[in-house]
Design goal:
Layout: E1 2-8, E2 17-26, E3 33-41, H1 44-59, H2 72-87, H3 90-108, H4 118-130, H5 135-154, H6 181-191, H7 197-206, H8 210-214, E4 221-222, H9 228-231, E5 233-235, E6 239-243, E7 246-250, E8 260-262, H10 265-284, H11 306-319, H12 329-340, H13 345-352, H14 357-364, H15 370-386
Helix pairs in contact: 2-3, 2-5, 3-4, 3-5, 4-5, 7-10, 7-12, 13-14
């Protein structure tokens, strides 16, 4: 790595201007030379001293491109390319790009990063709400800006994160859509004659996410005959998403997402029948099912398209004359009915693949209003059963004449 000092023309003959350059090699993508440049004023000796410091900074990767003229839009693109794309799933990257370029940039993208204030962010939130965006989407804008600016502070581009001083809109409480128990039969009946019956049956009985169900391979399914109710299970090892028109398989985001989910006996039977039918089809084609084959496939092979499955779910709801809900509602249905039936939240957490039991309770406690009341009554019953006589008549030990307790 080499450095250079070049004198530049100056309007003031008493103060010389120098341009420092450090050659950091060629860009592996474009093949062009990459240089770090800086302009300093003063004597040639001072310029040489600064060049020595600059060489050390570049060597230690501590040099930062001056952000004085970098706009918010430019920095968001830089952050997504250099941080988000290296750490997040493709679908997440796609959503960040949409929010940054389509929602944030049109309002504050031209503002210089160094000039950004909390007032700019408050105006962004107000404008987006006025345009009809939901409070949840506006909070997503705030979350994106907070993460991007945190990265800027960590990289010493900014001194503070102004998003910490901004107040995004509060969320309005929304009930999570679920199928009522009495409606599940109507839903499954409407789905029975469609190619997606087994998919929806499996999701309802396991709480799998859409992508997790569609990524299942037969090697991940243990039907466990003859002990269906005990050994039958599926193992979640991947999730299928659609990014820019292409299907992408990825591993679960957390260790908890990679899990074993025991099957109900009826779900194991449905999956076994589904496997037998697939095997008959393969036999007619002079082939056989392999462990790597997807459980749910198109007639010509390959996994089902997630968006097509979601559209089919909506059509089945309309056919059964049931309330509209997203496909994720099957997962909410599974969790909600387990909790209301008394299944321990820790068990539900493990089935759903939540990272913590707090996430499970924060998500579903409001949909089960009777849990707290039932817990209070159960505790009272436990105490009543362990006491002789009426608990309400228990009193403290009588006091002695000097006022002290025995």
């Amino acid at each position: 790595m080499r450095g250079y000092v070049h004198e530049r023309p100056s309007q003031d003959p008493k103060e010389k201007t120098w341009e420092l350059q450090v050659d950091i090699g060629r860009d592996p993508k474009t093949g062009r030379r990459r240089r770090v440049s800086e302009t300093v004023h003063g004597s040639h000796r001072a310029a040489q001293a600064r060049l020595a410091e600059l060489l050390v900074e570049v060597e230690n990767q501590r040099h930062k491109k001056p952000a004085k003229n970098v706009t918010v839009a430019e920095y968001l693109d830089h952050w997504i390319s250099n941080y988000v794309e290296l750490r997040c799933a493709p679908r997440t990257v796609e959503s960040y790009q949409y929010v940054a370029r389509k929602l944030v940039a049109p309002e504050i993208g031209a503002v210089r990063l160094w000039d950004l204030t909390a007032d700019h962010l408050q105006e962004l939130y107000r404008t987006k709400l006025a345009q009809g965006l939901s409070r949840r989407t506006v909070r997503y804008c705030h979350s994106l800006m907070a993460q991007a600016l945190t990265y800027a502070v960590r990289q010493e581009v900014l001194a503070r994160n102004v998003a910490d001083l901004a107040d995004p809109p509060s969320l309005e409480h929304q009930e999570r859509a679920t199928l009522r128990l009495e409606n599940t039969d109507a839903f499954l009946t409407a789905a029975r004659d469609t190619p997606y019956y087994v998919v929806f049956y499996t999701m309802l009985h396991t709480g799998l996410r859409r992508g997790e169900a569609l990524a299942l391979r037969w090697g991940n399914v243990d039907l466990g005959l003859p002990n269906l109710g005990v050994a039958a299970s599926v193992t979640v090892t991947a999730s299928l998403t659609k990014v820019a028109g292409a299907l992408v398989l990825r591993e679960p985001k957390t260790a908890a997402g990679r899990r074993r989910v025991p099957l109900t006996p009826s779900c194991a039977l449905v999956l076994r029948q589904h496997r037998d039918e697939q095997q008959k089809l393969r036999t007619s084609l002079r082939s056989s099912l392999a462990a790597d084959d997807f459980v749910f496939t198109r007639p010509e092979g390959g996994p089902l398209d997630p968006s097509t499955v979601s559209k089919a779910f909506g059509a089945i709801l309309r056919k059964a004359r049931l309330p509209k809900m997203p496909l994720h509602g099957l997962r909410h249905t599974h969790a909600t009915h387990l909790l209301t039936s008394g299944v321990h939240p820790k068990v539900v957490q493990e089935r759903l693949g939540h990272a913590s039991i707090r996430e499970t309770m924060d998500t579903y406690s409001h949909t089960v209003p009777g849990l707290q009341e039932a817990a209070a009554k159960k505790f009272d019953d436990l105490l009543a059963g362990s006491q002789s006589g009426d608990v309400s008549k228990m009193s403290a030990n009588p006091a002695t004449d000097d006022g002290e307790r025995r």
